[in-house]
Design brief:
Layout lengths: L16 H4 L27 H12 L2 E6 L2 E6 L2 H7 L5 E3 L3 H5 L1 H4 L11 H10 L5 H27 L4 E2 H18 L13 H16 L9 H27 L8 H7 L11 H14 L2 H16 L1 H15 L7 H5 L2 H13 L5 E6 L3 E3 L3 E3 L4 E5 H4 L3 H4 L13 H6 L18 H18 E5 L7 E4 L1 E4 L3 E6 L33
Parallel strand pairs: 2-8
Antiparallel strand pairs: 1-2, 3-5, 4-12, 5-8, 6-7, 9-12, 10-11
Helix pairs in contact: 7-8, 7-20, 8-12, 8-13, 9-10, 13-16, 13-20, 14-16, 14-20
This protein binds protoporphyrin IX containing FE (HEM).
Length: 509
């Protein structure tokens, strides 16, 4: 039997804060709380995360909000977040939006409760799919998908049209995970409208988010019917994909789907059940593209607004890749400055913007806030990443040098958490970083990025974050991707390429 992350199950079901936090009265809440309604006045149902940031700024590093009969505690101060990272006293809490995804993703890796044995089983079976060797095998497929993007952008640019950044990044990242993980082609770049898989996925994510903001799910009856149809579509698509593989002769060269179908747990010999495979495929198709597409989109937004940063990043690409027509796997991790651009974009807009932690025992958070076993809180990463005590008074300013190795070394631990924390941190982190760095490198090398001066960043929320309506005008660079000799890398580019670490055993925060 596979192990679980926490041993025994914590209490199930929604736990309102008053049951778990004996000294809740010491945690501030918004003014003008109303009986029955709580703190919902002025709340915007389509941007709950940005609402929470507003309250965070107003109320400080720990605060609470009540929506109807349910009360939540939010945390963003670095000291508190660092204490919550202690895996001996806290673990992932599956609640709110994540629990709302259980009807479609069940005990798949992202939505599994800590006590469900399928979490450890799937983690152990799938983690090698994110090893250095596996990533190197995905690299040529990532390049092939990126080429479809640049073909499309070349055509748009030749026709003097601005490109739809979030739309095209979503096509790119969906095709990348579908191809590398499952040998599947959704044909996204050949379609004018998003693939129905994307439409169904967005529907399901949006519904899961909306469920958090209504007092009774019955109020969303019509939306619930649409959600049933969306889930049925997602299931059908995945079942076809699995069936194709089962009947194909060649298999997928050890891709994620092969691992799901063929690999037994190295110690117990257990395999994933057919139902669990379905849930994992949906999990990876969704988790494997939605957040990376947002991260790439925010990075392109900032690059277009900071020509000095774009010029420095482009100079690095030219220097490190030289006249190599097709960058090799090892040449991607050497783009240290491009990686800093990504980190800084993920600092300001971590595209999975919160994670929840629950107490494994009765404990006291940061020595001040008692919590009973099973009590939980939501860590707001966009606020954590703007904590002025760590990031300074200019925390809102985009500055990739915050991720200069020296700055990273001297910063408080656990101040940067776009990948979550501990055993349940993102398994796809190295995958996302490799894909996004490669794509940014290719785009910087090929195009000048022209921002629309009238565009003001608006962020849409569907559990993940995305810049809304971002379009860029591109110009093909003259003589790009050719004839620049590869020179010696600058000193800070010589750090060894880090091995992807298992998020559990390498604890790679
Ligand atoms: C920029 C891109 C990404 C970001 C910001 C991101 C962020 C996160 C975060 C914050 C968590 C932890 C959630 C929690 O504690 O509740 C997580 C978990 C997860 N991510 Fe990612 N992710 C990204 C890309 C990916 C990719 C590319 C994949 C797959 C190829 C992936 C697969 C997963 C899975 C399966 C989990 C659940 C892990 C577990 O609980 O064992 N993610 N991710």
């Amino acid at each position: 039997m596979a192990r679980t992350t926490t041993g025994t199950a914590a209490p199930r079901g929604f736990r309102s804060a008053e049951h778990g936090w004996p000294e809740l009265h010491r945690i501030p809440h918004p003014p003008r709380r109303l009986p029955l309604l709580g703190d919902v006045l002025g709340a915007n149902r389509s941007t709950p995360l940005q609402d929470s940031l507003k309250f965070g700024r107003m109320l400080g590093p720990i605060y609470r909000r009540k929506a109807f009969n349910r009360e939540f505690v939010f945390v963003w101060g670095t000291e508190l977040a660092a204490d919550l990272a202690d895996e001996t006293r806290f673990a992932k809490h599956v609640g709110l939006g994540i629990a709302n995804l259980r009807p479609v993703a069940g005990d798949g890796l992202f939505t599994a409760y800590n006590h469900e044995p399928n979490w450890q089983l799937a983690h152990d079976v799938l983690a090698p799919g994110f090893s250095r060797e596996a990533m190197a095998a995905y690299h040529p497929m990532m390049l092939a998908v990126a080429e479809r993007l640049t073909d499309h952008w070349d055509r748009e640019t030749a026709a003097d049209r601005a490109v739809d950044v979030p739309g095209d990044m979503t096509k790119l990242t969906l095709e990348t995970i579908a191809r590398t993980g499952f040998g599947h082609d959704f044909g996204s770049f050949e379609r004018d409208r998003p693939h129905p898989f994307i439409t169904a996925m967005v529907g399901t994510l949006t519904y899961a988010q909306r469920l958090n903001t209504v007092p009774w799910p019955g109020l969303l009856r019509e939306a619930a019917r649409r959600n049933e149809a969306d889930m049925a579509y997602l299931n059908r698509t995945v079942d076809e994909l699995v069936q194709e593989r089962r009947t194909a002769s060649g298999g997928g060269d050890g891709d994620l789907l092969d691992r799901m179908l063929e690999t037994a747990h190295p110690e117990t010999g257990e395999r994933l059940s057919a139902q669990n495979v379905r849930r994992q495929v949906i999990t990876f198709l969704v988790a494997g593209h939605e957040t990376t597409s947002g991260a790439l989109s925010f990075a392109l937004h900032y690059l277009s607004r900071h020509p000095d940063v774009a010029a420095r990043a482009r100079a690095e690409v030219d220097r490190v890749w030289g006249d190599t027509a097709v960058p090799g796997y090892d040449q991607v991790a050497k783009l240290r400055y491009v990686r800093r651009v990504l980190d800084e974009s993920l600092r300001l807009w971590p595209t999975a913007p919160a994670f929840a932690r629950e107490a494994l025992e009765d404990t006291v958070l940061a020595g001040r806030h008692p919590m009973r076993r099973g009590a939980w809180t939501l860590v707001l990463t966009p606020m954590l990443h703007r904590d002025p005590e760590v990031w300074g008074a200019d925390a809102e300013r985009f500055d990739p040098d915050r991720f200069d190795p020296k700055a990273v070394r001297t910063r408080a631990p656990h101040a940067f958490k776009p990948w979550g924390t501990g055993a349940r941190a993102c398994i796809g982190r190295q995958f996302a970083l490799h894909e996004a760095t490669l794509v940014l490198g290719l785009l910087l090398r090929r195009y000048e990025l022209g921002a629309d001066p009238d565009y003001r960043l608006r962020v849409t929320e569907r559990l993940t974050l995305m810049p809304e309506g971002l379009r860029l005008r591109l110009k093909r660079r003259q003589g790009s991707a050719t004839a620049r000799p590869a020179t010696a890398p600058a000193a800070d580019e010589e750090a060894p390429v880090s091995e992807p670490r298992c998020p559990v055993h390498g604890a790679g925060d």
